Amino acid sequence: MHATGPKGTICVTASDLSVKENAWFAPCYAAAKAGLLHFVWTMAEKFEKDHHIRLCALCPARADTPLVQTGYFFETGPQCDTGTEPALTASEVAEAGMVLLEQPEKAGRAMLVESSGAIYALQFPTVNVHPIGSVKGTV
């Protein structure tokens, strides 16, 4: 990584709610957004320490964008979306993004913004592991 910014540089990435829910209608899109979120979680501390760049991820619920309006990634068009909540407006998503920009303690965090406008911090996922067997016959 060769990027270095002046102290206070912030990079807000755009992930979305598909990282939290089963996005069966757009698996490649959901995988890309999940990868972006994981990148922020794993690299935020290093970017801030080594490059003076604060990484954050904004994960809004369905937003009223041309992508959603046209049904581009929906199998059968927008009616495939089963959400009952109204879509967020671009202004609402931007307002939530300002929380990340204005609060330095959010470094390395991701924010989930629901259609209701509620904002939640997403914590780095922990993977629960438990033995199920062994290739050597013992656990």
UniProtKB/TrEMBL annotation:
What the entry lists under PROSITE patterns is as follows: ADH_SHORT
Q: Which Pfam families does the annotation name?
A: adh_short
Q: Which UniProt keywords apply?
A: Oxidoreductase
- Gene3D superfamilies xref list: NAD(P)-binding Rossmann-like Domain (3.40.50.720)
Bilayer-crossing residues are none
Which molecular-function annotations from GO does this UniProt entry contain? oxidoreductase activity, acting on the CH-OH group of donors, NAD or NADP as acceptor
Is Oxidoreductase tagged as a keyword?
Answer: yes
What family does the entry list?
A: Belongs to the short-chain dehydrogenases/reductases (SDR) family.
What name does this protein carry?
Answer: Short-chain dehydrogenase
